[in-house]
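ok here's the first one, seq then struct tokens
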Amino acid sequence: MKPATIAGNIAGVVQRFAGQGLTVKDYLRAACRKPALFYQSPDTIAGNLAGVVQRFAGQGLTTKAYLRAACRKPALFYHSPDTIAANVAGVVERFAADGLAATDYLKAALQYPTLFTIKPATVAANITGVVQRFAGQGLTIERYLRTAPKLPQLFCQSPDTIAGNIAGVVARFAAEGLTTGDYLGAALHHPSLFTMSPATINRHIEMILELFDAEVFALPRPRHHSHPNRTGEHPHPHAPIFGFLIKNPRLFSMEDKNILLRRIHQELTGAPSSSRNLLRSRGKTELELMRHLGHDDPARPVPKNANPVLIGLIRDGYIKTTRLAD
């Protein structure tokens, strides 16, 4: 095909959708990933996009939103509307009785465009495969489908991978009181736990247990009228920590330096041992630490003659909400 024809194809598509935000740069990037787009006529591309949007306009799909998804997943530019519509509708029909709405699955697919191209049978096998693995812990398709749209990768993640991620954490800490049912419940509230590797989560837990043993943080006092946690009845001294983590599942996925920042904050400020030392947001932890080290305005760059400890924490990536002066 002549260069002039290719240039015309690109310009033709961009002109059709310039009003919806498509730029030459966007489309060229997509075409470089899927070179077949260089040879597709603008009419064909426009028809493919319009066909999908028309099918799901009633569920709120717009051309602009679908274009953004197509730029991230260039195959959407040339997949037929019938194929895309069948993929989406097939999943929704399969799980409608379990509470999956077309609007929810479309929203998930726009966040993770690969879902537009996966066959319904594959998605169904992924969902049911996970549920079957954990049915003994009370997991149902309905419960899992309430979680999956929050992290769309769950629709296409292998059941073996997800089961391995859960089991790898529980096996490491079962002797200290962590159960599959408890960790599964945490993952349903904080879906990234389904996809994070056991090695990463295990390292985070070990770091948090070290903070507890070093009295950087303490557990909140239980209310006298509250019921004891199941993990609280376990004889291991770390068991109550897992009850606390299950109630605050985001702590499992805190990055390493965010966890270490809690020890630095407590040691430098002399803050008393408290659950707040772990639950406090990173931004607030950094702000308190900066003020203690003599810098009370994160919007103002830290001068070169500032506290050397503060400068070191910024350089090493522990404090991120401010920067060093040039």
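and now the second one, same deal
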Amino acid sequence: MTKTTTTTAKSRLLTYLRNNGATITVAQARSRFGMSNPRARISELRDDGYKIVTEMRPGRDGTVRGVYSLKRTR
């Protein structure tokens, strides 16, 4: 992934998370934004100072998935 593509993907993910307290899983980020490595974009956002929270939730199939959200600061 090129730097421009990475920046764009990161920007789209951040915009999505900012909207109405949205949450997203790795699979959803891959599908919605075509990201090959959503965890890396989450890590970059954290490095940029954004408070991304990971909540572990059981899926319908019984597996546990990380669900990401942006923590609002007041």
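notes on #2: Helices lie at 3-18, 26-33, 38-47. The first strand starts at residue 23 and ends at 25.
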